[in-house]
Every structure is written in structure tokens, then in C-alpha cells.
TrEMBL record:
GTP binds at residues 230-235, 249-255, 274-277. Binds 1 potassium ion per subunit. GO terms for cellular component: cytoplasm. GO terms for biological process: tRNA methylation; tRNA wobble uridine modification. (6S)-5-formyl-5,6,7,8-tetrahydrofolate binds at R25, E85, R124, K440. InterPro entries: G_TrmE (IPR031168), GTP-bd (IPR006073), GTP-bd_TrmE_N (IPR018948), GTPase_MnmE (IPR004520), MnmE_dom2 (IPR027368), MnmE_helical (IPR025867), P-loop_NTPase (IPR027417), Small_GTP-bd (IPR005225). The keyword tRNA processing applies. The gene is mnmE. Its EC number is 3.6.-.-. This is tRNA modification GTPase MnmE. Residues 220-364 form the TrmE-type G domain. Exhibits a very high intrinsic GTPase hydrolysis rate. Involved in the addition of a carboxymethylaminomethyl (cmnm) group at the wobble position (U34) of certain tRNAs, forming tRNA-cmnm(5)s(2)U34. Belongs to the TRAFAC class TrmE-Era-EngA-EngB-Septin-like GTPase superfamily. TrmE GTPase family. It holds the Pfam family MnmE_helical. It comes from Acetobacter indonesiensis.
Amino acid sequence: MDHHNGETIFALSTGLGRAAIAIMRVSGSGSADILQRLCGKLPPARKAALRSVWQDARTQDNLLDEALVLWFPGPKSYTGEDGFELHLHAGPAVIQAVANALVEAGARPAEPGEFTRRAFTNGRMDLVEAEGISDLIEAETESQRKLALAQTDGALSRLYGAWAERLKRVLAHQEALIDFPDEDLPPEVEQGLLDEISALIEAMQSHIQEGERGERIRRGVVFAIVGPPNAGKSSLLNWLADRDAAIVSPVAGTTRDAIEVNGSLAGVRVTFIDTAGMRETEDEIEAEGVKRALFHVKHADCVLQMFAAQNVPEDVFPNAILIGNKTDLGSVPAKVLDTPVIPVSVRSGEGLSALKKLLEQKVESLTARSSFGAPLLTRARHKAGVQEACACLEAALQQDWPEMRGEELRLAMRALGRLTGHVGVEDLLDAVFGQFCIGK
Ligand SMILES: Nc1nc2c(c(=O)[nH]1)N(C=O)[C@@H](CNc1ccc(C(=O)N[C@@H](CCC(=O)O)C(=O)O)cc1)CN2
Ligand SMILES: Nc1nc2c(ncn2[C@@H]2O[C@H](COP(=O)(O)OP(=O)(O)OP(=O)(O)O)[C@@H](O)[C@H]2O)c(=O)[nH]1
Ligand SMILES: [Mg+2]
């Protein structure tokens, strides 16, 4: 994608649902001219003004709307360049007419994430903060909101920046060892340097480990509901979803595809996946369903293994929560192979509130932080970057040659720099900003 910061871009920043007001956002060096063309004299900076919006204000040709107008001169604006907002009456015809007038005045529609991309390019925020903005807009639960907001506030960026600073000092000491090999530098210098590298490795490793929680909060905790046909898996899904998401029937093998339902538990986004009942089958489609069920057993954060009272399983999946259903028809054992069984009857409702409590606890333990307040990584991109930096530091420790060690340290610095976007990220930007909402 070719990006021209000189161009003036616009986008509708408010959602397309039923709403009274729509915000059209404009950014770029042509903003002052375009705003004057549509609304006449520029309003005072950052003060709302009520204006008529015209196709051309000079000729008072074609009145489009009466709008609140905000003028944001750069470089302190969100994008770092001149821009303005029109708070219009929401309505497809108003929006279309204003968009046409903007194009006629020289602006073009923005790409997804282009406003924030400009904020990044103009040094208003780094890459990690920009990703946080995108997550904040997507956040559906309280925990997602908090995590994203901390990220837009620079908490994660500051952690990576602090590591980069420490690395810079290590590198400086390393250079001193290279430049003055014959001077009698005290041996503590080299030892101190190695200790600092080890400390950084440890910090990065625990950050990666904790990061699993951040990724879970961001994407949601995934529960896979599995078990033999007719156990009542789809019935449980429907109860958890509070709607008829999946077909329930007495026919064994009713569910063949995986059915996902999103919800929230303990303020955390969760996904429940109902799967095909596991059994040997000649049916090609059902067999594919069973294959998918096994896939979800492997990839879910937690497996809900369900069985019906009369049909106690011989094996228990690792880390599964065992649910014995249909207690209205018969009793279930207290344990199977040392795993406690949660007795429920989805039909009568018995045990369901206890099950829900248990699931809430599970969600909390899967997302709770061990070190309070430390920022969490939230994406595979962050994890990969920290892992790369960490691998370079480990390689640095293995190097006896000072020059080679210095090279590994520089590579680690570079990996951290790419994370926040301070170095060499041109190739990454389309991927990062392409995931944004239009108008942000
Ligand atoms: N209508 C509207 N609401 C919005 C935004 C927006 O752009 N427009 N935001 C967008 O994300 C968020 C709030 N963020 C904002 C960030 C900066 C400024 C602003 O007025 N900046 C001043 C400079 C402020 C200063 O540093 O002194 C400026 O633009 O000149 C406004 C909102 C959420 N709500
Ligand atoms: N008596 C009784 N019947 C139940 C209970 N829960 C579900 N059922 C019934 O058991 C049958 C199978 O339920 P489903 O939820 O479709 O079972 P499933 O595990 O999704 O089955 P498959 O999709 O075939 O793998 C249906 O007739 C349900 O009404 C229960 O607690 N007690
Ligand atoms: Mg089913």
C-alpha cells in the first residue's frame, strides 16, 4: 500500500447502527481549505461551533446539513496534522451528500486504521499503543477494556522501552570491553554485564509466560464442550448461551459441526464451542466433525468433558472439567480416575448454578495475574518479538567473543525496537493497521 501523508482523508467514525448523530472525521494538510469550503470561516480551535454545511459555502450552493463543527489544528491533534470533525445528523443521505462534497473538495476516503497510522507516523504514539486503540474499540468486556486502555496509555510500551534502555547500557559496557581490551578493566565489568543479560532474559521469559493471560483476555477464554453423542452437550451450550444456538435431539450424532457461542463470565470474554459427539463412525461428515472436536480439545483453554449418567467415560482428557449430566435419570460417580465429577441435569436445572460458579473460577484462574500491575502482552506479534529478543540474549551469553556478543545484543535491541515500531517496521505496518476499524 502506498501512503501519502500529504493527502487529506475522511471517514465516518461512528457506527452504522441506528443513531442520531454521525461523526465525519477529516485529517490532512488540506483540512483548513476543505473546512472553509464546506462551512465558511474556520471556527476557533477545539471549540464546538454550529455551522451550516454546504456543498460550496462561497456560493451557498446546496445546503447539506446543520452540524457541530470541531477544528483541530496540528501538530497536537490525534493524527498530529490538521483535521476537523463534522457532527452530522445521522442518516445515509446526509452522510453520502457530505462524503460527495468532501471528495469534490479534494479529500479521499481513508483506509482502515489510516488515522491511527498517521498518528504513529507523526510520532503521536508507538505501534503497541496504536494496537491498544484498536483493541479498545473492539473490547466487549470489562477485562478487555482495562487491558486495552493500559496499552493505549503506554504501559506495555514503557516496559519494552525500559528493557531497551537496559540493553543499551549493557551494549555500552560491551563496547568498552571491545575498545579497551588491554586496559585493566576490573573483571566485575564483564560479570556485571553477563548478570544483567541473565536478568533481562528472566524478565522476558516471565513476561512471555504471563502473556498467555493477556492473550486470553484479549481474544477470550475458549471452552470446548466434548463427549459422546447424546451426553447433552448441545443442551448445555444452549443453557450457557441462553438461547437455542444448537439443535438438540434424542438422535445420537445430531451435532456434526463445531458451534461457537460468545459470552462473558466474570467480566471476561469467553467462547463456548459445542462439538460433534465422539464415536467411531462410517459417516464421512460426522467423522470430520469428530476430527474437529479433537482439534478443539487440543486448542481450547479448558475442556468441558460431558457424559450422561448411564455412560461413564473410561478416559479423562488432561485438565478437563468432568460434567456428569442427566442426574434426573440416575446418579453419577463422585469421581472418574481421580477427577471430580460435577453432577448436573440440564433438563431439571440441578447443579447448573454450581457449574457456572466453577466456570467463573476457572476463567479467573486462567486470566489472573501473578505479578500485580505488570503490563501483559496481548498478541502473537508481541510474543514473537519478545521471544526473538530473548533468543538473541541467550545467544549473547553463549558467545565468548566480545564482538559476536555485541552483535547479538544489537539484534536483541532491534527486536525490541520493531515491537514498538521505533526501528524497521515498514513491512509490518499494513498488517498491523489493516486490522483496524474504518475511521480510526
Ligand atoms: N468526537 C470525538 N470524540 C472522541 C475522539 C475524537 O477524536 N473525536 N477521540 C479520538 O480518539 C477520543 C478522545 N481522544 C481525543 C484525543 C485528543 C483530542 C484533542 O482535542 N486534542 C487536542 C490537543 C489536546 C492537547 O494535547 O492539549 C487537539 O486535537 O488539538 C480529543 C480527543 C474519544 N472520543
Ligand atoms: N433426561 C435428561 N435428558 C437430557 C438432559 N440433557 C439433555 N437431555 C436430552 O438428551 C438428548 C441429547 O441431547 P443433546 O444436547 O442433543 O446431546 P449432544 O451431546 O449434543 O448429542 P450429539 O450432538 O449427538 O453429540 C436430548 O433429547 C436432550 O433433550 C438431562 O439433563 N436429562
Ligand atoms: Mg449436540
